[in-house]
Amino acid sequence: MEQLWAWLKAITALVIILGFLETILPESAGLRGTAKLVFGIVLMAAVLQPVLELVHLDWARSLSSGSALESVYSTSFYAYDDWESTAARLQAKGAAPVLRAVDDSAGRQLEALIMTVQGVEQARVKLVSEQGVIEAVDVTVTGDGITGHKIQRIIAQYLDLPEERVAVNIEAGGAEP
């Protein structure tokens, strides 16, 4: 909470300073417009600094190496070591729903592909994935005259997996591979 408070105080101070600088600008339209643009960019950069730290865009330190700003960043809200683990957790949590949706979509695509094999009446696919990488596939098919090896080979080739990682279970009168 102290870090958030320090960040809010810094933003407030920056707004006050930028407001003061804007009031002392000459009335020249071109200069005032350019200055407002620069002030806006500076304010946006200050507001977005915590987000930039999350995605490892450490441009503030690289621009100010050896300056007083570096010591402020290293001891305040912007401490890098704490943010690295936080960023990794946020990335994993944020990616989880997307990866589940991709796995579901890939499973439905595989089921549709398997349904094109002659003799298949129904197909259920379960993907086993780790961090978005498909590790194994478990397939259950029902129908007559199904060759499990053919289905195993089709799925392995489609997903670029070794055939050993594709398990095919056949129900209702089919023959095992």
In short:
The protein is an alpha+beta fold and 177 residues long. It has helices at 2-23, 29-54, 59-63, 68-75, 80-115, 148-159; strands spanning 120-130, 133-143, 166-171.
Describe the 3D structure.
It is a single chain. It is built from 6 helices and 3 strands. By secondary structure, the chain is of the alpha+beta class. α1 (2-23) packs antiparallel against α2 (29-54). The chain has a 3-stranded mixed β-sheet, covered by helices on one side. Mean pLDDT is 78; it is low at 66-73 and 75-80. It has 2 domains: 2-78, no CATH class; 97-171, ANL, C-terminal domain (GMP Synthetase, Chain A, domain 3), CATH 3.30.300.30. The chain is elongated, with a radius of gyration of 29 Å.
